[in-house]
Amino acid sequence: MQQVKNTSKDFEVIIIGGGLAGLCNAIHLSKYGKKVVLFEKNTYPRHKVCGEYISNEVLPYLDFLEINPFHFGAVHIEDFQLSTTNNKLISAKLPLGGFGISRFTLDFQLSKKALQNGVTIIQDTVKNSFFKEDVFTVTTKKNEAFTAKIVIGAFGKRSGLDVVLQRNFIQKKSPYLGVKIHVKGEFPEQRVALHNFKGGYCGVSKVEKDAINLCYITNFSSFKKYKNIDDFQEQVVYQNTFLKKIFRNSTPIFRQPLTISQISFESKKQIENHMIMCGDAAGMIHPLCGNGMSMAIQSAQIASKLILNYLEGTILTRTQLEKQYIRQWKKEFGWRLKAGHFIAKLFRNNTIANLMLQVLQKLPFLLPIIIKQTHGKPIKL
Predict the structure, then answer these.
(1) β-strands 176-184, 258-263: how paired?
(2) Which of 34, 52, 136, 300 is found 20 to 30 A from 356 (Cα to Cα)?
(3) How far apart are CA 199 and CA 218, in angstroms?
(4) What is the spatial distance between Cα 348 and Cα 69, in angstroms, rounded to a whole number?
(5) Of 42, 28, 48, nearest in space to 122 by CA
(6) CATH number, domain at 347?
(7) For position 88, what pLDDT does the model report?
């Protein structure tokens, strides 16, 4: 991947992690002429385990960043479908709507925009971050050191840096495993579906190039009873007849499924050692709610606006910056996270989940109300 050449190792902002939150921060800050370096250990483009559905709430902000996902093949999504483990089904219109686009495409296009804006992107792994006398020094696996006034941690769900920072959630083992594949087959373009099976659930939606994204999460204790992914799918996932039909009547695009383990839904701090955490590094909504990508993008907007105010002197102290970020982050996402954890907890109990669906079938107007609890309103610029 082409990189902006920059011999200096002194920046205004260092961003650790080149996912949605990191790249959106980079584009936003560089749009205002700030000197930004972003570290990402992998090259673009690449696939990630992700539901790849995004709420329309972020479209005004993406437009501000000069990114139109529909120019890159994103598909409009308007309908939602939900099934439980006993194959009961309910459908509803999404209150705000959304779109489907792969991380392969979206991350790549965001990285191209960041480079166009003058962001320095370095393929390397950050090993540590030190804060002394109001300046950060970040060291990398290639034994280089970089300094900046601000460091943004946007390194995703779980990172070696979490261990170095001794973050509380990293001390606890997480029992969840995520699996994702892209397939070719029949599925309505305007729909996102969430199909439950014993011990997990699978999101289904179209992305660009007529591909269907199948991404499921399950409890690792359930998964390890079986020889491999194929065996688990045959014996467990296919007990949901809707999933069985989709998997059986489609052709895999990937040679092998992508997997990720140790997915943690524990609470996280939004500030660690004065680093501003964004995206999944700050807090992760349960994938059952299907809105993590929107939250990552929106967290970048919150962080970037405050950082610009701090660098330009409107926010006078780092303490004020940190307090305002925590307050705004919790105001925007606190209720969503609580609602998401509560909904996920209910769905882990098959009896309660099936009872809930029976209620929703009789009172379908409740489903859009529930969906709204884990989604926001269109971002105000």
Answers:
(1) antiparallel
(2) 52
(3) 6
(4) 34
(5) 42
(6) 3.50.50.60
(7) 84
Residue type, 314: T
Q: φ, ψ for residue 120 (rounded to 5)?
A: -85, 120
333 phi and psi angles, rounded to 5 deg:
-115, -15
Whole-number Å distance between alpha carbons of 259 and 216: 10
List 248's β-bridge partners, or say none: none
Q: What is the pLDDT of residues 222-262, one digit of tens each?
A: 888 888 899 999 999 999 999 999 999 999 999 999 998 87
DSSP 193-219: EEEEETTEEEEEEE-GGG-EEEEEEEE
> In terms of residue numbers, what domain contains 120?
10-172+264-372
Dihedral sign of CA atoms 317, 318, 323, 328 in order: positive
- For 175, the enclosing helix (H) or strand (E) is none
Longest dimension (CA), the chain: 65
Q: How many domains does the chain have?
A: 1
Query: Within 10 Å of residue 82's Cβ, how many Cβ atoms?
Result: 24
* Residue 310 in tokens: 């701090």
Instruction: Determine contact, residues 4/119, Cβ cutoff 8 Å.
Output: yes
pLDDT at 12 over 50: yes
For the entire predicted model, the pTM comes to: 0.91
Specify if 100 maps to a domain. Answer: yes
Alpha-helix residue ranges (DSSP H) falling in the chain: 20-31, 59-64, 103-116, 160-164, 220-223, 229-235, 241-248, 292-311, 318-348, 350-362, 366-372
What average pLDDT score do residues 195-218 get?
Answer: 93
Domain membership flag for residue 179: no
- The mean pLDDT value for 55-79 works out to 96
Average per-residue pLDDT for the chain: 89
Contact 342, 334 (CB under 8 A): no
| Dist. CA 156–CA 5, nearest whole Å | 26
d(CA 132, CA 134): 5
250 lies in a domain?
no
With respect to residue 217, please indicate whether it lies within any of the assigned structural domains.
no
Are the C-beta atoms of 10 and 148 separated by less than 8 Å? yes
Is the predicted pLDDT of residue 306 greater than 80, yes or no?
Answer: yes
- In whole angstroms, give the CA distance from residue 91 to residue 360: 10
